[in-house]
């Protein structure tokens, strides 16, 4: 049987590849010429312009970075405010809005009248905290505490 002969490339394909190689080499040589002319010219006007443009770009970049940092800080502050609002007492089960009158006697009467209800709500909340959790929503609570013996303990309640 013997060796298989490779199929010869067409003349057009060979010339096209050679033309591409020559164009790439011409581009490479032109860029080298441009670099060498800038280096040999010394600190000319073009180099000074490039240097000034570079410095201006650096200043603009520093200003933009500072603006980005300021905006990120502002976003972080807003996220903190939103999370505090979500955890505020108004959504807390024991929260009750109380409007007290200016007169001290009326204030005392008002507070005494709601005392039993508040204590009863607090007792029920402490004894069964899951009662206030909506079962159709995802909830999560994580509580850490130290026992009387000095052990660190954690309690996690999660509804998915």
Summarize the structure.
This protein is mainly alpha-helical and 160 residues long. The protein has helices spanning 11-41, 45-86, 104-127; strands at residues 139-146, 152-159.
Beta-strand residue fraction: 5-15%
Low-confidence stretches: none
Number of strands: 2
Listing every helix as H and every strand as E from the N terminus to the C terminus, the arrangement reads HHHEE
Can you list the strand order of the major beta sheet?
1-2
Instruction: Give Rg in angstroms.
Output: 39 Å
**Number of helical stretches of at least 4 residues:** 3
Overall pLDDT score: 81
Overall geometric form: elongated
Coiled coil: 12-65
Keywords: Coiled coil
How are the SSEs ordered, and which strands pair?
Blueprint: H1 11-41, H2 45-86, H3 104-127, E1 139-146, E2 152-159
Antiparallel strand pairs: 1-2
If you had to describe this structure to a student in words, what would you say it looks like?
The protein has 160 residues and is mainly α. Among the domains are: 44-87; 95-132, no CATH class. 61% of the residues lie in helices and 10% in strands. It contains three helices and two strands. Strands 1-2 form a two-stranded antiparallel ribbon. The longest helix has 42 residues, at 45-86. The protein is elongated and about 105 Å long. The two termini are 73 Å apart. The mean pLDDT is 81. Keywords: Coiled coil. Residues 12-65 form a coiled coil.
């Amino acid at each position: 049987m013997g060796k298989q002969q490779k199929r010869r490339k067409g003349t057009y394909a060979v010339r096209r590849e050679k033309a591409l190689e020559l164009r790439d080499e011409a581009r490479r040589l032109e860029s080298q010429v441009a670099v060498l002319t800038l280096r040999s010219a010394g600190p000319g006007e073009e180099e000074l312009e490039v240097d000034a443009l570079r410095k201006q770009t650096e200043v603009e970049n520093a200003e933009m970075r500072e603006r980005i940092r300021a905006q990120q800080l502002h976003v972080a502050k807003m996220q903190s405010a939103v999370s505090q609002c979500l955890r505020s007492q108004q959504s807390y089960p024991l929260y009750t809005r109380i409007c007290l009158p200016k007169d001290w006697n009326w204030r005392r009467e008002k507070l005494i009248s709601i005392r039993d209800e508040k204590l009863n709500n607090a007792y029920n909340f402490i004894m069964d905290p899951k009662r206030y959790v909506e079962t159709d929503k995802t909830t999560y609570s994580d509580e850490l505490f130290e026992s009387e013996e000095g052990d660190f303990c954690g309690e996690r309640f999660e509804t998915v």
